[in-house]
């Protein structure tokens, strides 16, 4: 609805609560951004010179990749370790999350229990994965054990939220009908809840696998988890070898793009089914 | 011919699916050299250790102002990198989306560049950018910037193509110019979605910034790394606590904004 203003122009967008919130958010983000630049710890770096250098570095990285301190067999093995780490933590996380999500869904478990588990998982998710991994490294030592534990923890926290929300979308009538016919709790889970939410669980798990693959790279670089992240860390910090870093980057890029393509296809399939 | 039993078939599929998963899991355990027994036994040990050592003490609270300072640095970096990257991402998404692109040939490069930026992990970007920016805030800033940029271009291309076909056609029929169509129809229609994604990226970036900070020696990640590696566990635990509070606060703030905006 157009409203005449003092200047005689027609105000096209009325001042609703939503529009006002959008404007306040945009102004807030802009102010915070401007303020943040004044707190930057630049450490004597000339931004424009460094940006020029960055473009030159990108040229070396993307157009002159080659391996020197690692060979191709080692590269593929390292990539496999990283994929394995991502896969393992997704599976472990999914198993834990499935059972706890049943207790965190408000239509399947007592309200107080669901709320306790939700609060716990919110805490687990709020701690960045790298801190979980370093935390477990104190008692398990730096390496794959700490990485698996830490990443599993965070994955479980993420998947409990996703799974329990999928469970809550199930038609209440279906559950009621099964309960009325005398089905046990486990029977309702396996005959109604699981079949109805299986495709949603599968796609959430795959999303988490994508996340865990990139987390596994990061854990190799920062928390001694091994895999291709460790090779990248060595190429960058010890050998100062951009060209090798380029070859390693292509390897992770390839696999990440494959995962993204699969996820898009999966989403399209799910959409077609219902 | 005997009719197929659907329940039998479904069960057979399920069993096959779980057998494949079990085999892959076993393979992953072998390849990562993960020791299941050591892993399981480490959990109770970690818990008892945490109860004894991983609790903030008075000495740690004396460091609180300095820790909060570092936290502010990290939060501000996450917000500003997400905001600037989203603004740039929106422009590139306009070039990449089918309804708003200036030329069909622009679409593929826009999508391709975005794909490279988001599919190289933020930690890998940090390792790459260390060469140009050293251990300064710029390294983390641009690492977060690139990943956010790639992500925003992708989701905004989808959003623009979803919201805009009919209104663009209508405006074109009235003879509106390209810029008028963009600023009067497309941007207002996409803005709530864009804000929702920016908030999502701010939440993601705070976690990533902690990680990147360990690599580049900046912000709250560096504070944690410093205390942790000098065995000052009570101060490190305070850092974790402060991060948790900040993440939960920002999550609930952005949920409130989302409810108001969408």
Automatic annotation (TrEMBL), chain A:
Keywords assigned by UniProt, alphabetized: Cell membrane, Membrane, Transmembrane, Transmembrane helix, Transport
GO terms under biological process: transmembrane transport
Matches recorded under CDD domains: TM_PBP2
Cellular localisation: Cell membrane
Keyword hit for NADP: no
Membrane topology: Multi-pass membrane protein
GO cellular component: plasma membrane
UniProt cross-references to Pfam families, sorted A to Z: BPD_transp_1
Residue stretches spanning the membrane: 20-38, 75-105, 126-149, 185-204, 216-239, 245-263
Domain of life of the organism encoding this protein: Bacteria
Protein name as annotated: Binding-protein-dependent transport systems inner membrane component
Native source organism of the sequence: Oscillochloris trichoides DG-6
From TrEMBL, chain B:
Family matches, as PANTHER family: ABC TRANSPORT SYSTEM PERMEASE PROTEIN P69, PHOSPHONATES TRANSPORT SYSTEM PERMEASE PROTEIN
Stated name of the protein: Phosphonate ABC transporter, inner membrane subunit
Residues passing through the membrane, by range: 12-31, 75-95, 116-134, 140-157, 178-202, 208-228, 235-257
The entry's keywords: Cell membrane, Membrane, Transmembrane, Transmembrane helix, Transport
Domain of life: Bacteria
Location (main, coarse): membrane
Gene3D superfamilies from the UniProt entry: MetI-like
An example Gene Ontology biological process: transmembrane transport
UniProt record similarity statement: Belongs to the binding-protein-dependent transport system permease family.
Intracellular or extracellular location(s): Cell membrane
GO cellular component: plasma membrane
Topological type in the membrane: Multi-pass membrane protein
Organism this protein belongs to: Oscillochloris trichoides DG-6
Pfam family, one: BPD_transp_1
Record-annotated ABC transmembrane type-1 domain positions: 71-254
